[in-house]
Each structure stands twice: as structure tokens, then as C-alpha cells.
Amino acid sequence: MAIRAAISDRCSKLSSSSLGARSLSSWWGNVEPAPKDPILGVTEAFLADPSPDKVNVGVGAYRDNSGKPVVLECVREAERRIAGSFNMEYLPMGGSVKMIEESLKLAYGENSDLIKDKRIAAIQALSGTGACRIFADFQKRFCPDSQIYIPVPTWSNHHNIWRDAHVPQKTYHYYHPESKGLDFAAMMDDIKNAPKGSFFLLHACAHNPTGVDPTEEQWREISHQFKVMGHFAFFDMAYQGFASGNPEKDATAIRIFLEDGHPIGCAQSYAKNMGLYGQRVGCLSIVCEDEKQAVAVKSQLQQLARPMYSNPPVHGALVVSTILGDPNLKNQWLGEVKGMADRIIGMRTALRENLEKLGSPLSWEHITNQIGMFCYSGMTPEQVDRLTKEYHIYMTRNGRISMAGVTTGNVSYLANAIHEVTKSA
Amino acid sequence: MASTMFSLAFATPSASFSLQHNLKSKLKLGTSSQRAFSGKDFVKAKSNGRTAMTVAVNVSQFEGITMAPPDPILGVSEAFKADTNELKLNLGVGAYRTEDLQPYVLNVVKKAENLMLERGENKEYLPIEGLSAFNKVTSELLFGADNPVLQQQRVATIQGLSGTGSLRIAAALIERYFPGSKVLISSPTWGNHKNIFNDARVPWSEYQYYDPRTVGLDFAGMIDDIKAAPEGSFILLHGCAHNPTGIDPTPEQWEKIADLIQEKNHIPFFDVAYQGFASGSLDQDASSVRLFAARGMELLVAQSYSKNLGLYGERIGAINVLCSSADAATRVKSQLKRLARPMYSNPPIHGARIVANVIGIPELFSEWKKEMEMMAGRIKSVRQKLYDSLSVKDKSGKDWSFILKQIGMFSFTGLSKAQSESITNKWHVYMTKDGRISLAGLSAAKCEYLADAIIDTYYNAS
């Protein structure tokens, strides 16, 4: 085999090495440097930049109007309550029961029949990434011939996740560059043309990276077509509450699908809406036929988690269940989420107004049409590179602006820079 | 039927591939025998009162999925919780308990957490490789702060999800860069090792380790199997306090193992889950890893802070790859990150901060060393007490001294699978089916009860 040959090659090199009997020749000679992660690499570059004018509108982490990371008051309070009062024992493989209960209520509705009938298999997951990954591995294990349909564009890590899970990927039309909105007709065509019973990845709200969401009417049509085709809907919901400021409203797409009887899957994340980024808290849920199937599916999800990390981290889960389980803290949280969403909506308006005032020849309507943390500006990679080199503005090369990084302090600088690099486009 | 299929997955790696086929046909079988329709058929929607007409709806794609078997280790605690008998004793999972059989949060951990609360640090994403302050102290703790390999920047370290997550990332690295290479694991080993390599699609085989006749190390068998493995295999070694047996090689034996591994151009892969818990000394427990590093060997080491800092649920550990050059280490680190990103993006922050503070602040580090000695000390003393009880109660003259020779949290009792089940059913003593008891879950007060249970089971149960 090629491997044997390579190894014996390495072995003969080792034995003939001039460094002596114990050679320092490496096993890792064929390991190349990995390319920088397109998103997280931006922050690394930003941190390394000494310019005082630098602006980070790269990674999707919320900043306040001073550009500082925010820890929500409800989170601080929850942590005060937790400190010293809990041990750090292993959670069960499926994670915190309380956190899962509260998460399901958020996603499926407080009075959901599915919850009452115990038809949802759910585990605590390592934020949105971990939830998607376990689902991808589950899909591979139990529907080994299936593929996943992923929108164009999508969060870049979606491709990595399903690839490392060995699930082949196909794409479906989503973003319409000319209108900087949804290419609904092409999307519906792709849904109709996919083989019956295909798996689709849908962003529940605040599409990342475009900020372009289907309207309620469009969601109803999508749901109907999914029924006709027997497709499976997997929702990645990373921004519940963050899009409109109202978690119930942001779950509209999911509720439409549930009303239509779809047995969906859902990845939830508390990274943004509770500011728990580094705590890695999320939930993976799959709607099943009945309680018995839900128990079986949950056991299989646990079976996938065990050889990946054994059981999920406890701290963030305690924070979530403390907040969501206490009506006062929950209300406080709802207020703070609305505050974050409102600030972003305000910055969208400000950025658009600034660009229009500068006399930009282009239309910037999409800045306020789009929703959530991100704005798909329509800028080219070359224009983005100019923004970085000339103005020390950091964003991903697909032209995605993290609106959470925009402040009253930097919005005019940002508008000016964008205007400069696009005015002769 | 279904349970047989899933137990196959535990037995051999090749089964996992046929498992896919079995599952697919099982899905079809399941649908035809249990239900009248397949995933594409339509049923009446669950009525919510709104619509009276038949709505086309999907039956679940996951129709034929059967119940997974309980985890052999974590399932024990679940069964223990469900037991209402007041004599019950949980010697299942390796989690440290005080003499009152309560979980123990170390004082240094509480202090570190208070510091963190006071500082009010944010909860931003860590970089993919984790908290750099943590990565620095963890590799120093392992190799020794003055170790030249660190000065030469030859170690690629990334924070991992405790021991499991760190092993899994390393397994994924092996799969990607050494496709077809095998990992040799000890017989027996921690139950989850096989799952990790199976799910990472890395083939494995076993090397002899435990000798039931001596209840000690089958050193000759171990050497034979390592020698027989194809050149360039990965040898999974427990750095100290072997799980489940508690049997460690002596320093002389470690030297011979290192000799052989070098001769065969194998790669040593250490699982260090109990640094400090074996002897009570953090440095001493790292001596096997340091011995190999001192010889200029390249190696992998997975670390966990679950036990030695009691941070179980925080999921904090690290994967270290000691390379022959700083350049190789840089490249390897970048690839470790690339494997982590599609698994969880970046690791949890809370436990990493705790560890960085405990090790990084000299007063806290000293205090930790003392608490470590205390925990290891309690385990040594219950070992002694259990041994004493067994020796007094067992009139047959059987030599129970292996309990004293074993080291760390666990003892391999020599009870069979059937006997392990019997001791649970009759005496409400919970342990894993391989005959392993966790001494961390044993109190001095319960030693006599346990001795009675063991003796009765050993001689009377089949």
C-alpha cells in the first residue's frame, strides 16, 4: 500500500539519518499549514493591526455602542446565583434536562403539543456548531445515502460540518445578487427539482451571511412544497430574538412548518441571543413520531456525543436554565435581547442614511431590508481588501458586514470608506 | 435483533461499516413489518382543530431507529440513581467523592471562580485553539516548565473537550494524515476509547495488558503485541493510573516500552487523565511522558482536568502533539484547529479560565498540590482499609494485595461480568461490567460492606 511505502521510506530515512540512532525526523512532514478560517481569521488579523482607526465588522459577536463585548445583566445575575452552589459533576450525556426543556419551549412554543406528547428527541449541544455536527453525523448514520441541500451562500462552517460528517452536499439558490434579496423563484425550483425526501438546511431567521429572510408568505409556500416533496427540514436557528427583537416572532418559520405537520430538526444556539459565545451552549432537537421513537432517537444522539466529548459543558447550561426558568430573569433577558436587536436596527438605518447623504450612486436599501446581525453589502472581495488595507476595516471577503460591530462612533467612518471603494463601481 | 447489531459496533471496527448496510436494510425491514408505509407516504395530520381535510405530511425519516444500548460506564450512574435501596453504593464512574460520598469542588476552584466573578470577564468566543493562557500552563504542567521541548516550541497544543474531546481530535488527525494506520489499545482499556476510534474511522487492535492470573501487568504479552504491530502504528498508553486496571508499568518497564516503540518506529499516544491522582505528585505522574520526550521522540498526549481539578462537567482538557521541529508543530496546530472547527468551532471558556488561574497563580497552585495530595491520600487509605477488610474476612487465604499494588482511582477486582451483575443485583453495589470499581466512590465507612459483597460474590456467584 502507498502508506506502507511512505512509512518504510520514512523509516529508511530515519535509520540513515546523520542525527544518530534517535532521529529527529518528523512524522508530520506531510502536514501542510491549514488555510486560515475565513471568519475567525479576520479577528486574528484585526487584533494584530496597530492602527487606532481600525474597525472590526468581521465575526458575528455583539458589541455595545462603545464597541465593547457585552455580558447581559441577566447572565451576571444568573452567575452570581450559580457561584458556589453547584458542584461540577458530569451532566448526563444528553446534557442538562432543565436547559433542554426551556430550549424546546423557546423553539416550539410554550404550549406545544409536541412537547406535551414528548415527541421531541433533544440533547444539549456545543452551541450551534455542535448541534449541526451531531445532526450531520446522525443523518450519515441513519440515512447513509442522503445528501444535504445547503443555501448559497451560507455560514462557511456549514460546509465544513457536513463534509467532516461525510454527508455529500448540494446547494440551492438563495441569495439574489441583483436585488440583494431572496431569489425565491430559483429557490422554489431547486426545492421542486430535488429528489423526493431530500434533506434541506434552512436558516430559521436572520440568514447568515446575507440577512435576507423569506417573508411569512414565502415560508408558507416553502413549507407547502416541502410537504409535496416529502423533504426533511433542518433549521439552524442561531439568532432567535436577535432578528426582530422578539423570540416568538423569530420562530415564525419553524411554527409554520410545525403547523403543517413537518417532523423537523432544529439546532439552537445561545451564543448571540444570550451572549454566551464562549460557553458553547445550544440544543439539538428532532421531532419524532411518538414518545417511544423520541426516546430511541435521543439515545442514538447520545451515542454520537459520547465519543466526541462524552457529555456537554455544565456552566453555560446552568446559566441558561437559571435565566429561562425564572420569570423575572426571563423577562429581563427578553428586554436585553430586544435592546441588542434595536441597537442593530438603529445602526442599519444610520449606515444607510450616511451612505445616501454621501451621494452614493448605488442603492443601499438592502441594508435596512436585511435583518439580524449581518448585512450582505454586495461589495466584491477586491473592494473588501481595499477597505482593510486602506481603512483598517475588517470583514469577511464575501462582503458581509457584522452590524453588531457598527457604533455611532464608527458609522460615518465606515460609510465613508464604503463609499470611497464603491463609488466608481 | 437490533441490539445485536449495535453491540457489533462495539466489538470490531469492521462491523461499523457493515453496520451501515444493516441499518439501511433494517430501516426497510422496520417500515415493512411495523408500519404500512414508508417515509414518503402521507398520513392525516395531527388535528389541531383547524383543518378537517387530509393534509399531506411526512412520516419521520428516522422510522426504524432503535434504542441504543446504555453506555457501559455512564449508564451505571443512571441505574444507580434509579435504585431506591439505602445500602446502594456507586463505584461506577470515576468521579471523586469525599468520605461522606459527596462530590467535591476543590477550594482552589472556588477561589478561582470568585476571582473570575470579581473580574467580570466577558464571554467572547475563544479562538479555535482555546485560551492561550490555558494552553501555556497545561503543556508546562505536563512536560515541566523548563522542558527544552517547550523552549524550542515543538509542542502543538490546543484546548480540547476534556480527555474525550482531545482524544477525538487526535484520532481525527490520525485518520486524516495516516489513513490506514492502526492504533493499538490496551486490553482492557477505558470503555470509550473504542467508540472514539470507531467514530473517527481509525482501525484499532489490542495489545495484551492485564494478566488475570497475577492481577497485574502482562508485560511480556504487551511487548510481544507491540513488536508484532505494523511499523508506524500508534500505541495508546495510559500515562499513569491505568483505567480500568490501576496497573502501571514500572519505570524500568517504561524504558523498555520506549526502546521498543523507537525500534518499531511507532508513535506513542498518551492518555493522561489522572495526573496527580496516581501518586499524589503532579510531576511524578508525568514521568512516563517526560521519559519519552527526553528521548527526542515525537508523541501525542491527551490531558483531562476532570478528576485532578474536579472540573468534570466543565469539559476541560488539551491535546498536545510533540513534534521534532517548531515548524512541524505550527503546521500540526493549524490542522488540529481545522478538525475542531466543524466539531464545535471553539472550546468552552469557563473551565479553561479556572485551570489557567489555578496553575498560573502561585498561591493557588501550591494549594492545589496539597488538595491533590489529600484526594490521592484518601484513595490510598480506602485501598488499605478495603484490603484489610478483605484479608480479615476472607478465610481462604486468597491474596488480595493486588488492591494495594494498583494505583489511581480504580481497582480491577477480578470479578467477572456475571459477578459484576450479581453484586449489583444482590448487594446494590454498582460497578462496571469489566470488574472495575472506582475507589473514589468508596468511603472508609463502607469498606466492610464492600468487602462482604466482594467475598460473597467472588465465591458464590457464578
Automatic annotation (TrEMBL), chain A:
Its cofactor is pyridoxal 5'-phosphate. InterPro entries: Aminotransferase_I/II_large, Asp_trans, NHTrfase_class1_PyrdxlP-BS, PyrdxlP-dep_Trfase, PyrdxlP-dep_Trfase_major, PyrdxlP-dep_Trfase_small. Pfam families: Aminotran_1_2 (PF00155). The keyword Chloroplast does not apply. It is an enzyme of class 2 (transferase). It comes from the Eukaryota. Its EC number is 2.6.1.1. Belongs to the class-I pyridoxal-phosphate-dependent aminotransferase family. CDD domains: AAT_like. GO terms for cellular component: mitochondrion. Gene3D superfamilies: Aspartate Aminotransferase, domain 1, Type I PLP-dependent aspartate aminotransferase-like (Major domain). This is Aspartate aminotransferase. One of its GO terms (molecular function) is pyridoxal phosphate binding. It catalyses: L-aspartate + 2-oxoglutarate = oxaloacetate + L-glutamate. In eukaryotes there are cytoplasmic, mitochondrial and chloroplastic isozymes. It comes from Capsicum baccatum (Peruvian pepper). Keywords: Aminotransferase, Pyridoxal phosphate, Transferase. One of its GO terms (biological process) is amino acid metabolic process. Homodimer. Residues 53-418 form the Aminotransferase class I/classII large domain.
UniProtKB/TrEMBL annotation, chain B:
The keyword DNA-binding does not apply. GO terms for biological process: amino acid metabolic process. Its cofactor is pyridoxal 5'-phosphate. Pfam families: Aminotran_1_2. Its EC number is 2.6.1.1. Keywords: Aminotransferase, Pyridoxal phosphate, Transferase. It comes from the Eukaryota. InterPro entries: Aminotransferase_I/II_large, Asp_trans, NHTrfase_class1_PyrdxlP-BS, PyrdxlP-dep_Trfase, PyrdxlP-dep_Trfase_major, PyrdxlP-dep_Trfase_small. It is an enzyme of class 2 (transferase). CDD domains: AAT_like (cd00609). Residues 88-454 form the Aminotransferase class I/classII large domain. The keyword Lyase does not apply. It catalyses: L-aspartate + 2-oxoglutarate = oxaloacetate + L-glutamate. One of its GO terms (molecular function) is L-aspartate:2-oxoglutarate aminotransferase activity. Belongs to the class-I pyridoxal-phosphate-dependent aminotransferase family. Homodimer. In eukaryotes there are cytoplasmic, mitochondrial and chloroplastic isozymes. This is Aspartate aminotransferase. It comes from Capsicum baccatum.
